[in-house]
Amino acid sequence: MSAPATVEFPSFEDLHRRVSAKWSFYDDDVLPMPVAEMDCLLAEPIARALHEAIDLGDCGYPPPALPLARAFAGFCERRWGWTVDPHQVVHTADVAAGVIETLRGLFAPGDRIVINTPVYPPFFSWPAEDGIGTVEVPMLETGDAARPYRLDLEGMERAFASGVKAYLMSSPHNPLGHTFSRDELVAVADLADRQGVLVLADEIHAPLTLPGVDFVPFLTVSDTARRVGVAYHSASKSFNLAGLKMAHLVTADKDLFARVRAALSPEIHRHVGTLGDLAGRAAFTDCDDWLDALRELLAVNHRTLQEQVAERLPQARILPATASYLAWLDLSAYDLGDEPADALLRVGRVALGKGTTFGELGRGHVRVNLGCPTDYVVDAVDRIDKTVQAVQAQRAGHDQAAG
């Protein structure tokens, strides 16, 4: 009987040897937590597949697409009971490339799409590349700790009726960590169908729901959703493979597939690298136990952050997440400015995601990356607390001098 899978981390010193964006951008005394990549080592089956390829010198052009599509389909069936037709899976370098190609191929400058703010910053920039505008329908707080957010369906209906062409959905939601209910998704599909809106569901964080929380793929909720929806997936977030460039555009309706495929570059699938293909196959076929161990770790890190914030930063607000390794922290009560991340980096030497890049609702907020050892979470709150104390002491000194 094999040993249970574990999630392992390099030392802090070894992490600083990495050349990826998260670890190469800041000075060595900074705790970096803004970029959405994890600190863990690769799952062993993925590392083995990549080592074997390197040993063979197997770095030529990517192989035929169908084996990877079948591996992805098997993963979807096991994890979510979602039957994916491998022939309706189109590989692309990453979700960004898939969404941008879809927008560019199906819409025109001056068209508009709906987004739910605060939201992943590229949701503003991807459409803008082709002159497409965004209509913001902010997420709403519910007051329910079990499901602290919900879609503003009334606002969505008004936006859809105004003539928008598409709805770009972050599901699970980045940065809020909200998993949409089946009822919410059914309602979205019905609204989109009535108004002729295409739903583009970025589901890249789907495998990272916390234990006990189910992810509902948009294309599973109804025949209507299948007619109006395109989903985007990748192993990049869940298995820390973003640099290997491998993602999937998925449809569940043959007519829509034909429409979307015709709008894409015929060479889009060639943007996937051979190592990305091999890593994706290993992730989707041999790493379920490792993924479950990661989800348990993320639950511990989310809980640790909640507890540390409650103890050290009682005026801060952080609502429970149900997915992902990202957390949304409201520090506006501490008067660190519209962009607290600036003071936190300067004073506390902790780098966090800048709230205003997620939209105007991000003022006074930061996004925290919890894909790290648990003691880094404690260290991050300690650095935030020290920053707050330093800023308050400085302000008190100024007030005393002015008095």
Question: Can you describe this structure?
Answer:
This protein is an alpha/beta fold and 403 residues long. It contains 15 helices and 13 strands. It has helices at residues 12-15, 21-24, 44-56, 66-80, 95-106, 122-128, 153-161, 182-195, 223-228, 236-239, 254-263, 274-286, 288-312, 340-348, 374-402; strands at residues 31-33, 89-92, 112-115, 133-136, 140-141, 149-150, 166-170, 198-202, 229-233, 247-250, 326-330, 350-354, 365-369. A seven-stranded mixed beta sheet has the order 2-10-9-8-7-3-4, sandwiched between helices. It has a four-stranded mixed beta sheet with strand order 1-12-13-11.
Name the beta content range.
5-15%
Helix content: 40-55%
| Quaternary status | single chain
- Strand order within the widest sheet? 2-10-9-8-7-3-4
Residue ranges: pLDDT <50 for 5 or more in a row? none
The computed structural class is alpha/beta
Q: What is the count of DSSP helices, taking H or I runs of 4+ residues?
A: 15
Number of strands: 13
| Main β sheet profile | 7 strands, mixed
Query: In whole angstroms, how far apart are the ends?
Result: 73 Å
What best-fitting shape do the alpha-carbon axes yield? globular
